[in-house]
Design goal:
46% of the residues lie in helices and 15% in strands. With 490 residues, it is of the alpha/beta class. The relative contact order is 0.09. The structure holds cytidine-5'-monophosphate (2 copies) and zinc ion (ZN).
């Protein structure tokens, strides 16, 4: 363990580690702490790390969840009083608005310019923290889209506070997988990889090369194939009867007693047989090698969890957390992360069921409304059909779905139900690794254009969001199309 911690610390830039140490010192000095976090899986995982660190330090604290850090959220946090605010998985995008706060930020969103300046100031004023101290990979030339999550940045503060917090590494892995940081190479990379080594060394996580489809622990085998999307299996995806026939033709038993068998219940021979058959299926249909390669990748298992439950497979756990946070019950996800396997987990299951239903309905609605292709972007407007908290997930699903046009980022609108002086609309955008490699930066585009309209926006090059006045949608689309075009040509 000690060795794995030293390896992690020596592999990250000195400046990033110094920031983590400064943040840990500030937390330690605080009489009370409010943890302000984002509502998604990474945000919940990040907050659970902060919560456990504070508990171990004996510091009284409270966790609050935010969809975004806008002026209203900042004002509400300011009214909390004199304690320290620990921003996790958010904060960097609005750091310039946080001067005057007694705060630390452990985040991986692209920092705003004010935030970057604030860092220099914070370093000069380490003793009084009149500017928030930030732990953010972007400030040290490291990608916050692929190499470190919000939970990962928070974990760095945790081990800077006390090496024994290294046992929380699995929660950082959970956050990174929740933010799809393993998508690019089909495994965790960068600082995430060193954190993974710690999680493995601590005995909580196993990493194994396996099938990448969702639902290895809990979906009946044929359902896992039926819902397969990356890669899409021609003739099999979406076709229940074909999934069953395909498995039977390989001599795979579908049931064990009365229960449907899941991928996790198969022997390694059975798994290998299915993977080989799926590879052959794709190659006979002339799919590119890189598509076929996406069948398998590194999968992460939480070995101490009950087999057959969604908290055993890291991807499924992350979806459970999204189900909680994106439906206003981040607190339930938090309880599950810190160890509740009783009432909170049961409530989580119910939220997961609702989340699946909401996603299915939302996907249908977006498809019915239709996607409009502009020159450099494509979009759909869900109006009040889809909740603003899941419209981004739907945009990502549509971009990754079968027959999708992956040559332009997907942009989605949903009416915002947040109280506001004028009607506002939530915008979500999702891109592909190929578009990012060509220069697309959705975070920059969202922040710049929303900012010009009196809205707020930001995120990552590959996935970003904003909230803007509803009556400026068309103008927004025009500006975004133009900006993405110029990013792709530079
Ligand atoms: O706020 P936060 O950083 O936690 O959210 C990142 C978002 O970006 C997640 O919703 C995640 O699903 C999305 N993402 C994506 N594709 C990627 C990486 C991240 O859609 N390759
Ligand atoms: O909300 P959505 O899932 O589309 O967000 C995608 C990414 O953009 C997330 O990382 C989120 O934190 C970020 N975002 C942001 N500011 C906003 C909206 C979203 O930084 N106003
Ligand atoms: Zn995140």
């Amino acid at each position: 363990m000690k060795e794995a911690v030293s390896k992690l610390v020596s592999s990250i830039p000195d400046g990033l580690w110094r920031d983590a140490e400064a943040a840990a010192a500030a937390v330690r000095r605080a009489p009370t702490v409010v943890v302000a976090t984002h509502i998604d899986a990474d945000g919940i995982a990040a907050a659970s790390i902060a919560k456990l660190v504070l508990e171990r330090m004996g510091i009284s604290h409270d966790v609050q969840f935010f969809k975004k850090l806008d002026d209203a959220a900042i004002a509400s946090l300011k009214s909390e009083g004199s304690g320290l605010v620990w921003f996790t998985d958010l904060g960097s995008g609005s750091a310039s608005k946080l001067e005057g706060f007694t705060a630390v930020i452990s985040d991986h969103h692209v920092p705003d310019a004010g935030g970057r300046n604030a860092r220099t100031k914070a370093q000069a004023l380490l003793s009084d923290f009149s500017a928030p101290c930030q732990v953010n990979p972007h400030m040290h030339g490291i990608s916050g889209a692929s190499d470190l999550s919000g939970a990962g940045a928070t974990f760095l503060v945790a081990i800077a506070a006390d090496e024994r917090n290294a046992d929380l590494a699995a929660l950082a892995v959970l956050g990174s997988v929740g933010d799809l940081q393993d998508q690019k190479t089909r495994r965790l990379e960068g600082i995430n990889r060193d954190i993974l080594s710690l999680a493995v060394a601590s005995g909580f996580v196993e990493a194994e090369e396996d099938i990448r489809y969702f639902g290895r622990e809990t979906r009946p085998l044929f359902k896992m194939l039926q819902y397969s999307s990356d890669p899409f299996l021609p003739g099999i995806t979406g076709n229940e009867q074909e999934c069953i026939s395909f498995l039977l033709s390989l001599g795979i038993e579908l049931k064990e007693g009365d229960a449907w068998r899941t991928w996790a219940m198969l022997s390694s021979d059975e798994k290998a047989k299915i993977i080989t058959a799926l590879r052959d299926h794709l190659s006979m249909r002339r799919r590119k090698q890189e598509t076929i390669d996406r069948l398998t990748g590194e999968a992460y298992v939480l070995t101490r969890e009950e087999p057959g439950t969604p908290v055993r497979d890291v991807k499924e756990f992350a979806t459970l957390l999204n189900a909680c946070g994106r439906h206003r019950r981040g607190d339930v996800g938090l309880s599950i992360c810190v160890g509740d396997r009783g009432p909170a987990l049961s409530e989580g299951y119910a939220l997961l069921k609702d989340h699946r239903y909401a996603l299915r309905k939302a996907l249908e609605s977006a498809k019915n409304r239709g996607i409009t292709r502009m020159k450099h972007i494509q979009f759909f407007d869900a109006e009040d059909d889809i909740e603003e908290t899941i419209v981004g997930t739907i945009a990502g699903m549509l971009l990754g779905g079968s027959g999708s046009d992956r040559t332009a980022p997907m942009v989605a609108f949903a009416d915002s139900m947040e109280p506001s002086d004028v009607p506002m609309v939530k915008v979500s955008s999702r891109g592909t690794q190929e578009l990012v490699a060509r220069g697309m930066d959705l975070s920059e585009a969202m922040r710049t254009i929303a900012g010009r309209m009196g809205g707020v926006g930001g995120g990552h090059n590959i996935a970003a969001g904003a909230t803007i006045p509803s009556d400026r949608k068309d103008e927004f689309l025009g500006l975004l199309d133009e900006m993405v075009g110029s990013q792709l040509s530079r």
